[in-house]
Amino acid sequence: YAREGVDLSLSTLADQVGACAAALKRIHSLIEAHVLAAERLHGDDTTVPILAKGKTDTGRIWTYVRDDRPFGGLSPPAALFYASRDRRQEHPERHLKTFSGILQADAYGGYNPLFKADRDPAPLRQALCWAHSRRKFFVLADIAANAKGGSKAAPISPMALEAAKRIDALFDIEREINGLSSEQRLERR
Questions:
Q1: Which single residue of 26, 53, 128, 153 has CA 20 to 30 Å from 39?
Q2: Range of the structural domain that residue 27 is part of
Q3: Measured between alpha carbons, how far is 133 from 135 in angstroms, rounded to an integer?
């Protein structure tokens, strides 16, 4: 607001944010209940700048998505968001405390306690993410990225290139069978 010449105190802004959060709490709770009732979730986090006194910190937005449309499901898709000031494992543990089912996510170690056999209510089933796996192979196989580095382009790994091509072929199949029943998808695969 200051950039626009509006003089608002920090306490007024904090009061407004608090009032908005209170007004949206019931909606957030309904979305949370719907998302966490799913059989499977996709989880991810991303960095976000957070204003701090005299500087900008890096926080996290944690997203959990329920979307059964690729499996022919009828439940409406939804995304649940949480924010944190850091990436400690306590956050996904707290967010998914009541969830039991399949969690598809990257290989972030903070998710590991969710998959332990002694987890209450039950261990989550882990489904790793092909898109995250593909990135590592793609970096090794990407000529353009190697050339942009300003130094001599590193030799391309034929194995990494082949892995990226095979993962891309899997993605092509998944796009074709998106929305079909599990039986139809299994048959096509």
A1: 26
A2: 7-127
A3: 5
How many domains is the chain partitioned into structurally?
2
Note whether 37 and 86 are same-domain residues: yes
What confidence score (pLDDT) does residue 25 get?
A: 98
pLDDT value at residue 86: 96
Question: Global pTM?
Answer: 0.82
- The mean pLDDT of the chain is 91
For residue 2, being part of any structural domain is answered with no
Q: How far apart are CA 117 and CA 105, in angstroms?
A: 18
Q: Decide if pLDDT at 51 tops 80.
A: yes
**Helices 130-141 and 158-177 sit at what angle, rounded to 10 degrees?**
140
Q: Do residues 35 and 122 both lie within one domain?
A: yes
Q: Which of 65-74, 102-111, 130-139 is least confident?
A: 130-139
Q: Are residues 73 and 151 in the same domain?
A: no
